[in-house]
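Hey, can you fold this one?
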Amino acid sequence: MNSLWQDIRFALRGLFKDRSFTLLAIAALALGIGATTAIFSVISNVLLDPFSYTDAGRLYSIQIREKARSGDEFGRSFLSSPEFLDYKEQNHVFDRVIGVSRDDVVLTGTNEPERFDGGMVTANTFDFLGVKPLLGRTIVEDDGKPGAPPVMVLSYKVWVRKYGADPAILNKVLTLNGKATTVVGIMPSRFAWWGADMWLPTELTRNEPTDNRRFFFLLGHLKPGVREKEAVADLTVLSKRIAPLYVKEYPKEFTLGIKSLAAGVVGRFKSTLYTLLGAVFLLLLIACGNVGNLLLARATAREKEIAIRASMGASRWRLVRQFLVESFLLALGGAIVGCFVAHFGLKGLVAMIPPFTVPDEAVIHLSGPVLLFTLGVTLLTTLLFGLAPALHAVKTDLNEPLKNDSRGVSGGFRHGRLRNMLIVSEIALSLLLLTGAGLLIRSFFVLRAVELGFKPDHILVARIPLPDATYRTGEQKTRFFREVLSRLHALPGVVSATETSTLPPYGGIGSNIDISGEPHNESWNTIFQMTSDRYFETLGIHLSSGRGYTEQEVYSKRRVAVVNHKLIQKYLNGADPIGKKIHIPTLESGPDPIKDAWFEVIGVVSDVKNQGIQEEPMPEMFIPYTVSGFAGRGILVRTAIEPAGLLQAVSREIWAVDKNIPLTNTGTIESFIRSNSYAQPQFGLILVSVFAAVGLILVSIGVYGVVSYTVSRQTREIGIRMALGARIGDVRRIVLTMGLRLVGLGVGIGLVASIALMRVLKSQIWGISANDPITFLAVALVVVMVGLAACYIPARRATKIDPMVALRYE
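Sure. Predicted structure:
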């Protein structure tokens, strides 16, 4: 024990003496360990343990997909009330089932109407999820019975934001959707079921009218011992029995699957997190390689010291232990600093995570398992970059260094194979990281350059949740929007305004259609938008033939339609559609149904993105919003100034028509596109690019260190060469060739590995190939240029060696 303490003190003195080496090694390790720990913390909290619900790992939802698209990530997870009850009562795999749907909840009786996200839940929800209230009580079975007094449970975030965490709000009566509703409970901060602001009980019944059925998300708890495959098999049999009862809800050929609650919430963000984990793991390897190289160079420089200690009786194990103690102290320092890097890095990482990508219930922090992981990484790095240099330093003939000068030739430029191997590995790993970053950057720029088919700039968006009690029919909604649009057009700074049923470029109202005189056997899937006459003008959509509908046609409820090119190509083989009639059966059912929903095509517009940025547009048609009260509504306002500057004025005009109408989801189309389509890929590429840049810096330091160290060790040899007639260019070429040989080998290995491994990024890139030659070439050039710069400085220094001084270099 005494000798170990001596080794520790000796190691601390040596590390303090060589402070630049110590700081560089600790910084490299801290970056690798800190980044890895931060990313692992996010994965642990978001993917492995995001929910505080009882037995959350066995909570699954149902997904019904069209068979032709069974590989899609998404499917129908919402079931009508009677359909929900059929699955609940007839399945053999769930021992408990709950349902939830989201609805607008409008609070009135205050200064301004305020809209909240309401979770309409079955009465057994809170018992199912197993989370106790912070204050008061939860919803119980009696609250869901017909005639029960209206109650609601408030979320923690709304309790703090709106009511200042005042416990006096408990048992207060609020006016929600026109009903006096009692606040019976407040949930803790980590309860955020369905992302709702408040939860209200609802009852599911089989006797709901077909045209007014509600749809609920079904979440079931798998019985103990039931596996996913067994559950899918049982539910598939059940779905085949149920489907004929709900013909309109099921494709002719469909598959049924189940999805865990965590997978359903996190979705595609999971692949982003795993990509980042792979990136930081590569960064950790680069950091370890860099530190290993530094230790190896230091061990080589201490050959004479080691030989003297051995000649004085030190055993090989004592010498190896000395190196291991030094490397362990470095690893410990790297781990300690890495924890600080992880702590502050995690805060920045959480702030950068795009909204709506992780469960609201997830609490991301440095937990115990993550800290244990850090200690494990520390131990691994100790063995990795401590043992190898130690063994290399003592395996040679220890008598040889005593015969040579401390700065001797030691074999010229041919020595240092292990150092060279580490540098080649670092370069290859760095090229892997840079290639991944390059592909993500190229993909992002391709994504940003996608032609939307409309002009998204200077468009203010607002969703207007009209209460069903007063705005159920098309006539009622028409009166409201007609006056609102008239007022908005009179506002200074407004260029044009329109009503809309959905927000472009994110979908529409789905329906099968029929076209007069065009027989077909398969379903013709289409989406439609319900708009006012200035929709195309407001969005800047090009009308390619025919005409749009007029204001008079809108307010006379004339059944006319404008279609896109995709519909013509897919269902009419490119034939002229003007004068054709299209049947929309979806409008014949649901709220405010209309009879014989046939619409005459009067115009054709260019294709507009309507399934997000990355997907091809679907066949689409546009009809006057006045024909039915079907679906929710909003407004789009094109402005001559910054849209945000008109939000208050637009709000005032809407409240002048009806003071009880709140505005929600306000913003601009550009902001919604950034949030929904650009934020997640941008998050991934920024972090991977940062890791790649750090890796490249570490590699450049490593290459510079190896070449510079070799030059310093070969001062006498260089002097002899120059004394014998070697020119400056010859010496520079020797040094550059030595360095670039390592760079070239590392680039070659890295390119081969990149071609093999970049397929894992396939889900993260779009618009380019995973083996994009432009990216590979650009990355290879960057690494070569950085390697050349790292080699050039010591090469230039070598040419300035005075031969006479070098020959006396003893």
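The CA atoms of residues 225 and 624 lie 54 Å apart. Let me know if you want another pass with a different chain boundary.
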